[in-house]
Amino acid sequence: MLLEAKNISYRYRQGPWILKEVTLSVGEGEQVGLVGPSGYGKSTLSRILAGYIKPASGEVLLDGRELPTEGHSPVQLIYQHPEKAINPLWRMKDILNEGWVPDQRILDSMGIEPGWLERWPSELSGGELQRFCIARVLGPKTRFLIADEMSTMLDVITQAQIWELMLRIVEERRMGLIVVTHNKALAQNVCTRIISLPELNKLNTNAGFPQNEE
Ligand SMILES: Nc1ncnc2c1ncn2[C@@H]1O[C@H](COP(=O)(O)OP(=O)(O)OP(=O)(O)O)[C@@H](O)[C@H]1O
Questions:
Q1: What pTM was estimated for this model as a whole?
Q2: Cα 102 to ligand 1 centre (Å)
Q3: At 164, is the secondary structure helix, strand, or coil?
Q4: Separation of 166 CA from ligand 1 center, angstroms?
Q5: What band does 160 get if pLDDT is binned at 50, 70 and 90?
Q6: Where are the chain's structural domains?
Q7: Which residue has the higher pLDDT, 185 or 58?
Q8: Which whole number is the average pLDDT over 161-188?
Q9: How many other CB atoms are there within 10 angstroms of residue 46's CB atom?
Q10: What is the mean pLDDT of residues 94-102?
Q11: Of 174, 151, 166, 144, the residue nearest 46 (C-alpha)
Q12: 81 CA distance to ligand 1 centroid (A)?
């Protein structure tokens, strides 16, 4: 399977262009780091790749076809902010089991405590919520995972534990993985290829757009 972004351009309403003719592709079983300074459009591109927002021009293709607009999407995004990705009116067990029912091994490895399942999202910390958001996208229908700064809010031990489990599942199922991060060490440890968004973005050839690396 191949996930492709072809000539993607995007801006928010009438604001400045964020992405100009960005083209990239990720194959199944590939682990790709997407890096670039803050504000250069990594999260925006992630949302476009996952089909959450439509580009102004260009297309996202999965094996040459448009992403399905109904049912469980084969391209799943793990947000930086889990509270934005969940329904606050659902109990955690319903949020967790919406797309598939993760087994106990996964819940244990994620450090999800049984007592949390009956709680509402507002009764958990950001890091605890994020574990649910990760577990719920690891199901068999997911072919590509986009992890947008997904572990930033977790402590170092939990981060290591969650990445280890995620990589194991990604490899077992030959998923494609895109890791958006400012953490170069993480990108180098986890990824087989690193893509620099500013290098892909034709906008950066225009005068006036900031070129500074972090
Ligand atoms: N909903 C929105 N409406 C208007 N502008 C937005 C919106 N979301 C993001 N932007 C702007 O788009 C640009 C790219 O933002 P984006 O979040 O994609 O960058 P990023 O590279 O992921 O940044 P960071 O590394 O800080 O998360 C920024 O200038 C941001 O202010």
A1: 0.90
A2: 32
A3: helix
A4: 26
A5: confident
A6: 2-200
A7: 58
A8: 90
A9: 23
A10: 93
A11: 144
A12: 14
